[in-house]
Amino acid sequence: MSRIYLDHNATSPPSAEHLAQVFQKLQQHSGNPSSPHAFGRNASVALTEARRSVARSMGVDVSDVIFVSGGTEANNLGTVGVLHSNNIAINKQHAVISNIEHPAVSEPLEQLQLTKLSVDKSGYVSFEDAILSITTKTTLLSIMAANNEIGTIQPVKKIADFLHYKRWSSLADPTLKDEFDAFSLRLDPSLTTDVFRNLHFHVDAVQTYGKLPYSLWFSDGIDSCALSAHKVGALQGVGALILRRGRKFKPFIYGGAQEKNRRAGTENLPGIISFGLIAEEILQPFWFEQVQNMENLRREFFYNLSLLPNLEMNSSLENSVTNTINFSITGKKMSGEDLLVQLDLSGICASSGSACSSAANLPSKVILALGKSPQMAKNAVRFSLSLKTDQADILKTLQAIKTYLQSEHF
To answer: Among its keywords, does the record have Iron-sulfur (predicted)?
Structure first.
């Protein structure tokens, strides 16, 4: 039985063609990048090429790219790692996050004075709430670019543009000046230029990279962001922290000079090569043409799901990342878990939400944050598409869902 895989927010399996490319390149660059001999230098070339590709795919300098083990490590470094580099006791610092951040961001920050911003019923963080939550003691603001469970795109670019304006009186988009000047009148007068310059703005971009052009969500006001390679079809076990020049963090791993003394340990060369190859694809026009096709399928899938009984959408049609749909089962005798089992038996792979939290079998905190009941949160089901998903996959999945909703459970 051929399987339909619709859990790409958990991991997007690499294609056979991609694995062949990685293997071929690894055969040519198989040494330790830190070794001084020819094999090492050859491996170092591959490392540099991959770093350059990832940097270009984000529009940043190559020195801004730090290769790490994945999105979790990148988020930890971009938040707690940054805070530990300040000359302030960690429990004396104030951080601001949304109440739907990934656990890789929220859990390490529990020891701080922490403000959690509420979201609206679509999971959207207010730009105004984010900025007005900043105090003279705030050292970190961290908002995800798009939510991993429901796909809501957050206003991180607007937040970043405002922070950059308050730091340097500079705007990439001059049309925002009047709006920002008017909004600035609502700020506490004690929020000086230095307060905004000392504030670190981190963005979890794990579910945005490769799904939206970086120009739509990334800007100079973002000080760091987390990327994960396996969410876009590269190998697991590698990611990157984009850390803008002038920003610093305290490393978690010591014992080597790799990554310019910022992340000790021999680099995961197979993973990094894989990451670089995918980054090169993201740079090509065909990539986002395929993303648009995926978005069209998402909209078709969303519309047809919204017509079904005993089902309530948690995702929004608009302002959502191009591949993610989430709904809850509302029927009295059925659960999201039962639906997932039936789908799996039909050869369709989906999930209940974040892969990092699903083992706990608890109601989704993201769905709860939308104002929905614990029962709805426990019966949430997520589908996440890829560039390889086609209409036949969607139609078969819709039919399987319809069959279950119309079964004897009701």
So the answer is: yes
Question: What 3-state DSSP class applies to 301?
Answer: helix
Joined together, the tokens standing for residue 273 give 């090569």
List the catalytic residues.
356
CA 337 to CA 41: how far, in whole Å? 51
Q: How far apart are CA 80 and CA 226, in angstroms?
A: 13
Q: Residues 268, 274, 275, 277: is their CA dihedral positive or negative?
A: positive
Please tell me what DSSP assigns to residue 386: -
Long-range contacts of 117-122, Cβ-Cβ distance < 8 Å, separation of 24 or more? 117/143, 118/369, 119/152, 119/369, 119/370, 121/370, 121/371, 122/152, 122/316, 122/319, 122/370
Distance CA 365, CA 250 (A): 30
Q: Is the pLDDT of residue 26 over 50?
A: yes
Q: How high does pLDDT run on average in the chain?
A: 96
The answer, yes or no, to whether residue 204 has pLDDT greater than 70, is yes
Q: What is the pLDDT of residue 410?
A: 47
What does DSSP say about strands 65-68 and 239-243: parallel, antiparallel, or unpaired?
antiparallel
Q: 46-75 pLDDT, tens per residue?
A: 999 999 999 999 999 999 999 999 999 999
Write down all domains in the chain, each with its CATH number in brackets.
4-13+285-406 (3.90.1150.10), 16-283 (3.40.640.10)
Q: What pLDDT digit, counting tens, does each position of 235-256 carry? A: 999 999 999 988 999 999 999 9
Residue 80: name the closest of 61, 104, 56 by CA.
104
Q: What's the rounded Cα separation, in Å, for the pair 170 and 303? A: 42
Average pLDDT over residues 27-32: 92
